[in-house]
Amino acid sequence: MTSESESSVAELTPNPSNHQSVTPLENNLLTITGHKFNGSNYHQWSHSVMIFICGKDKEDYITRTTVPPEESSARYRTWKAENHMVVSWLSNSMTIEMGENFMYYQIAKEIWDATRETYSNKDNTSSIFEIKGILHDLSQGEMTITDYFNALTRYWQQLDMLEDIKWHCPEDTQQYNKILEKERIYKFLLGLNKELDEVRGRILSIKPLPSVREVFSVVRREESRRKVMLGLGTTILTSTESSALAANRGQNFSNIQ
């Protein structure tokens, strides 16, 4: 009968046929995340790193408390290699200064737990307040519609990560998501420049309101249409001026003859 400890170890035993296995060369060349951990961006860093490690099927090394195989075990060398591979991923995803704080950690989960306990800022009140303040002041201004929407989306995603609300029933979750979607539509529309008042009014007249992505798509098409029309206006003006110039030249040529 397999003991609980042996069972946990077995779950971390690498499968040689696993297509997600990583070669040493690949390990050295990997870029884990664009969010280098610097001590103030824990949530963005941990989220992007977890996606990467899950994609490599190695999340057990940072999410589960598992007893390593005995050093005499045939599995130990492989476990050690994969654990150190994950350690290197975590270290390489940090700034040099931050990585030095974890240089002598030998177990991947110890690094993961230490960063969470030290930098996760479980009381997110100040971070949430800061992001909501940024969102309150954010408007399109000189940005394109796409840049404006992308900026909003980044801050919305950060809020979603910090405000991890747990509802007791699916109906409450669905209702909350509908309210949140509508609030984000209002925020997006309120921040648009004045020349887009017409399309904003058309969208607000739709019942029920479309999704925030659909609203963005409609506004972006209107922005493109306006650019095309302005371009055509310039082209027409230039064409008219050219025709007048050609007519004047023809008249002058006739007078010379």
TrEMBL record:
<feature type="domain" description="Retrotransposon Copia-like N-terminal">
    <location>
        <begin position="29"/>
        <end position="69"/>
    </location>
</feature>
<dbReference type="InterPro" id="IPR029472">
    <property type="entry name" value="Copia-like_N"/>
</dbReference>
<dbReference type="Pfam" id="PF14244">
    <property type="entry name" value="Retrotran_gag_3"/>
</dbReference>
<protein>
    <submittedName>
        <fullName>UBN2_3 domain-containing protein</fullName>
    </submittedName>
</protein>
<feature type="region of interest" description="Disordered">
    <location>
        <begin position="1"/>
        <end position="23"/>
    </location>
</feature>
